[in-house]
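Data card: per-record layout.
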Amino acid sequence: MRRANGHRLFRGEKVAVLDGVQKTQARHPRIELFLKITVVAVIVTATVLAIAQDQETVELRSAIAAEDPAAPEYLAALVAADLVAGDTYDVLVNGDQVFPAMLHAIDDAKERISFETYIYDTGQVADQFTDALEKAARRGVTVNIILDALGTGSMDKKHFERLQKAGAHIVNFNPTAWYSLEELNYRTHRKILVVDGSIAFTGGVGIADHWQGNAQDPEHWRDTHVLIKGPIARILEAAFYENFVGGGFTVTPVLTEPKPAHDADDRSMVVRSSPSDGASDLKRLYLLAMAMARHSIEISSPYFVTDESTKWALDDARKRGVTIRILVESDTTDHKSVKYASRDAYDDMLEGGIQIYEYQPTMMHTKTMVVDGVLNIFGSANFDNRSLELNDEVNVAVFSRRLAARFLQDFDHDLRVSQKLSLETWRDRPLMARVHEHFWSYFGEVF
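The structure for this 447-residue chain is written out next.
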C-alpha cells in the first residue's frame, strides 16, 4: 500500500482525478467476476434456447376422419407402426388400483418379466416391487429391468444390489459423467411392464409413494395406467428391448405371440419416440390425431407446453369446429417453472374457444387423449416438447369406442373437481404471474 493525499490506498483500489479532486474507487474483483460469469451464462443459455426451438412448424391435415373405417390403417402407415387387433384394455385409476394389479402380475410370472421405468424412488412402493421382482428372479423367472440413471437417482442402492444378486439383469440407462454432460438431456421416460409376453402395463405411474392411494390429498397423485392383454403386449416388449440392448451383456430378445381376445373391438398400435431434430413418429401421432378430429378432442396431460406445431394443430382443429377440452395440473405441481411455461399459451387458447381446466385436489399426472369418441392415445408421453422430441417414450393408440367411453367417463369425473378457466378472469391475474409465465415460456422447448 501507499499514501495519496493523506489517505491509505489499499491494493485493489485506483485513484481518479475529477475537477482537481483526487478520489479512490474500489474495483471489487469478485463483483466483476460475477458479472462476467453472468453475461457468459446468459449468452450460453440464449444460444441453447435458440438451438432448441423448432426450426420449422409442422402443419398436418388428415384426408381421413377418425371415425372413418380406413382410419386405423391410414394412421398406422403414417407413423410407421404395426396395426393389430384383439387386445383388451383395463383402465386402472390411481395407485390403489395400479400397484396391486402390477404386483399380482409379477407374482404370477412364470417365464419372464420386462420392466422399464423412469422413477424408482425409496419408500413403501419400492420395497414392494423390489420384494416381488427379487422373489420372481429367485424362483427362476427371467427378470430384465431398465432404470433411467437420472430418474432413479434416489433409488436405495441396496435394492439395486438385491435385484442383481437374485439374478435380475439391470440396465442403468444413460448414466452421466462430466465428460458426457450432453447425454443428461436424453432420458427414458417409458413405463413398461410386460409379464410372460402376454400381459402388459403402461401409463403415467412410476415407483414412488406419492402414487399411492386414490388422489385423496395433495400428497397422493391422480394418474392412470392401463392393463393390456393381447398382441400389443408383444409390441410393448419389443419397445422394451430397444433400450435393453447395449446394456453391457449379451441380449437374446424373446417375444411371445399372445392370442387375440374374441370379444375385442380394437385396432391398436404402439408408437415410440426417441431424441429427434423434428417430428418423431410419436409427435406425428399427436398431430395427425388432432388433424383427424371432426367433433371433439379431450386431452389430459401434466406439463402441457405447446410449440408452434402443436399450437397450429389445435388452432386448425378449432377452426374446423372441433370442441377441444384440455385438463392439466393446477398450482399443485412438482414443476412450477413448467407450469408457468404452460400458462403462457392459455390466453390465445382461451380466446380461440379452447376449454382449459386445472385439476384442483392434487397433482394431475394422467396422460390420455380421446378424439371423436373413438381414437384413444395413452402411455408415458406428456403433451410437451420433452416427451415428443427429447425423451424415449412409448404410447399406445387404440381405435375403440368402448375404451373411449371409459376414458371420457374418467375425464368428466375429473372435470367436476377442476377449475374451468375463463378468458375474462384469466386476464385479471396478477402482473407477477404474467412475468413468470413469459420468462419461463422461453424454456418450453427444453422442459
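Known properties of this structure: Residues 1-27, 46-52 have pLDDT under 50 and may be disordered. The chain is about 35% helix and 25% strand.

See the next section for split statistics.
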